[in-house]
Amino acid sequence: MGVTAAGTPDGRPGPPRSVLADTLPERPTVSYAAAADPERALTARAYMQDSAPFLGLTTPDRRARSRTVLRGTSVPEEAGRTAVAPRCRRLPEREYEHCAVDHPRRHVRRLSSGFLPAARTYQGKHT
Question: Residue 18 has what DSSP assignment?
């Protein structure tokens, strides 16, 4: 799996490029959207003080859908795992940010201490 650095428009280094990170964020959009519950989404948004839009998925349903979406994905190099979170976090609804956390959690035994800076980027963008 090829990984190269990708910069941001203002010249700062961006997350590494990887095939997995370029394709993974698209995978949950269909599955998650099919299970969206607009009423629950409004409740979640109000509970979180309007900090982010939500689809209204319950945690057990989102985790089950994440397992299905992630099934069959290759075990990426650490740089590839590092690149997944920023791509998922570009999607507006909060559930996609949680999907970004589900992915490295799946490979936690393969993570080195070098992953810690990337893990910090998993902390809420909406806060």
Answer: -
What are the mean pLDDT values of the chain's consecutive 10-residue runs (127 residues total)? 47 66 81 93 93 93 88 74 78 86 77 74 51
Torsion of CA 41, 46, 52, 56, to 10 degrees: -10
Q: Let me know: does 83 contact 3? Beta carbons within 8 Å.
A: yes
> Cα 85 to chain center, whole Å?
5
Global pTM? 0.69
Pick one of 1.10.357.140, 1.25.10.90, 1.25.40.10, 1.10.8.60 as the CATH number of 19-120.
1.25.10.90
Contact call for residues 99 and 62 (beta carbons, < 8 A): yes
Residue 16: both structure tokens together: 């590494």
Gyration radius from the chain CA atoms? 15
